[in-house]
Amino acid sequence: VQLQASGGGLVQAGDSLRLSCTYRKLTLSRAAMAWFRQAPGKDREFVAGVSASGGSTAYADSVKERFVVSRDTALATVNLRLNNLNPEDTATYFCAAAGVPYIRRDAKEADFDYWGQGTLVTVSS
Questions:
Q1: Does the pLDDT of residue 13 top 80, yes or no?
Q2: Comparing 105 with 69, which gets the higher pLDDT?
Q3: At residue 25, what are phi and psi to the nearest 5 degrees?
Q4: What's residue 105's pLDDT?
Q5: Could you tell me which residues come within 8 angstroms of residue 29 by beta carbon, excluding any fewer than 6 positions away?
Q6: Are 98 and 108 in contact, with CB atoms under 8 Å apart?
Q7: How far apart are CA 2 and CA 112, in angstroms?
Q8: Which of 21, 88, 106, 119 makes a 20 to 30 Å CA pair with 43?
Q9: DSSP string, 61-116
């Protein structure tokens, strides 16, 4: 398994949550990483991403004031802090690894070669 996501759950509007993605350091240490999400009945969308070094980040406009992505290269983990959650954030969240070390603000699914299994976040109003 290359990627393993965790941390989802049921929370109330306004709450915070932290998602974690553990990746295989041997093969993915030079890969940019990202979080996508897919709400019921909707397409999967880019949420946030971080470069291989952890020095550059990118966010979707809908979350950039509320979510924070970070990377711990020593522990081979990528975290996504979700603040001030609202019901529209309800989705299955996936971590993904790209074939390149940089992250683009307009990152797309096709840019990513490896995907985790997803973790469900449900926000009640």
A1: yes
A2: 69
A3: -60, -35
A4: 87
A5: 52, 73, 76
A6: no
A7: 13
A8: 21
A9: TTTTTTEEEEEETTTTEEEEEE-S--GGG-EEEEEEEESSS---TT--GGGEEEE-
Name every residue whose Cβ is closer than 8 Å to that of residue 112 and which is 6 or more positions away in sequence: 34, 36, 96, 97, 98, 99
Look up residue 94 and give its two tokens: 């996936």
Query: Please, how many CA atoms are within 13 Å of residue 26, restricted to the half-sphere of its CB?
Result: 2
- Quickly tell me which residue has 């946030």 as its tokens: 48
Q: Across the strands, what pairs with 115?
A: 96
Among 83, 89, 97, smallest CA distance to 119 is for: 89
Q: Which residues contact 100 (CB under 8 A, 6 or more apart)?
A: 31, 32, 111
